[in-house]
Amino acid sequence: MAIIGKNVIENLTLGMYENSLMIYREYIQNAADSIDNAINLGILKEKQDTYTIKNSIDLDTKEKAQIDIYINQKERNISIYDNALGIPTDKFYNTLSSIADSEKDKESNKGFRGIGRLAGLAYCKKLIFTSSYIGENKKSIMIWDGELLKNILNDTKNRISASDLVDKVIDYKTEDCDINEHFFEVTLNDISTENNELLNVKDVYDYLSFVAPVPYVNSFIYASKIKEFVKENNLKLDEYDILVNGKPLFKPYKTHLLTNNKTYDEIKDIEFRKIYSKDNTLLAWMWFAVIKFEKNIPIENKMRSIRLRKENIQIGNETTLSNFFKEPRGINYFIGEVMVIDKNLIPNARRDYFNINETLREFENALTDILKKKAHRLYYYSSNVRRLFKKQYDIKEKENEFNLKIQQGNFLDKNDEINAKKELDKEKENLSSITNSINNFENNYKENSLYNKVFNLIKEDFQKKYIELTASEKSQQSAIKTDTISKNDNENNTHTAQEKSTKKKKYKTQELSKYNKREQKLITRIYNKIRKVLPKDMAEDLINKIQEDLKSE
User: Who is most buried in 71, 94, 259, 512, counting CB within 10 A?
Assistant: First the structure.
């Protein structure tokens, strides 16, 4: 007779997860399965999206399905409660004491291996399961002694079998309850001090907002478009009401992208793709945001990356699909989700990827074509278009700077002005070529609506910059004109018109009227030397500081 040693229990509890927060996902997926059963039996009310509720009169008196997570930091306890079917008294003990012997269907249930419920044992002193089945006036309670379990596992001399170990660390009892109660509750008592992250309400909320099968936040205006796609294609999007300490969970997708807490880009639309097998079976579908793809989205935007999900529960983390991109960093140019639906794509025990099979390979090949090839081309197309528009904009900006320097008398001398003019003229010779390249990028992709959207977003962005540049130029010119008129009004009436005209044409050192021409020429030579040895910005800053000091002396 084969003997299964106690270390199996250690692998399924203490050694199961590298991130302790994953236990919340395990208990949520079990609760979601029970809620699905209760809805199918007509006991609970199916979740309705906000739009449907606002536009209909709901006369259904059935109880609303809900999963409540309560974290008591003071007592160091955690509770995960659902109001679904519960487990009948006559099945409770065998169901919850059996390991890896679940009766669930792996093709239709989210949790089906019968091991995830033990995950909490690694992090608390007592793991308690409590349940009442609909129509029964008894509730069943099973207590797993996590502290005793760890002591036995750490005792190298104790050769107890896995089944005997389970019998030794569990206690079972029943209590009277209201016949109308139906629920299942997992309680983790006395969380270990080394696992304080499980008691951090904010961290738990942030983690579950992307991992759990919850709705998109109402402020995400493209949620309705995703729902429409799901409905039109006869798909399913599992969503549950889940609360953490009374606060409802939502996927925190937003329209605006931030850098240093300031908006730098905005989602203007979303696109959908279907992922098929060789025999044209739909394996998955995905949505992704249409943005300018300006840069690697900063980490302060928690929604960044393409996330992998099944039954709307995240598989792995935000980097799981990074290897499907030509460059791993490419994933952070995007925002979106891949929703796996094929029954043969089965999450592994850790739910960080799928079991390897032929269907998985077909899915990977199809996804590679979308992410490694098409997505890569898309953000490089965006980069090239933006680079050309920027060149065009930079030339206009240099022209404005040149004109302003003339008006402000900021050139060092005539040679400085002539050299700047030559440099500007050389830049302007490229304008025609740049404009042609921009037109080619636009025309070559006219038949591709996605590329058209991205092109127009970048074009609109630079049009706004042109407007701002023109407005700034006019404002500066107006200020110079006003300043000139004011100075002329204060001039001595003995100055002739010719003298005034001459004064308007000034170079930088001519402002230093207290110095004679020879001294001004020497200062100009010093300024030119500074420009040669220092970077442009540093040189100009230093020259301006010296200029102000000399003027004030």
Answer: 71
- pLDDT tens for 279-312 read 999 999 999 999 999 999 999 999 999 999 999 9
Q: In a 3-state reduction of DSSP, which class is residue 9?
A: helix
> Over the stretch 320-367, which tens digit does the pLDDT of each residue have?
999 999 999 999 999 999 999 999 999 988 889 999 999 999 999 999
In this structure, what token pair is assigned to residue 216? 């998109």
Rounded to whole angstroms, the Cα distance separating 243 from 412 reads 68
10 Å Cβ neighbour count for 94? 10
Q: Read off the pTM.
A: 0.81
Residue 238: φ, ψ to 5°: -70, 125
Pairing of strands 44-45, 63-64: parallel
Give Cα 450 to chain centroid, integer Å: 21
Of 239, 347, 235, 334, nearest in space to 285 by CA: 235
Comparing CA positions, the residue from 184, 181, 178, 177 lying closest to residue 81 is: 184
The domain spans of the chain are 7-214, 254-504, 507-553
Distance CA 482, CA 478 (A): 6
Where does residue 190 fall: left (phi above 0), alpha (psi -120 to 50 degrees), or beta otherwise? Answer: left
Range 7-214: architecture per CATH:
2-Layer Sandwich (3.30)
SS (H, E, C) 114-126: CCHHHHHHHCEEE
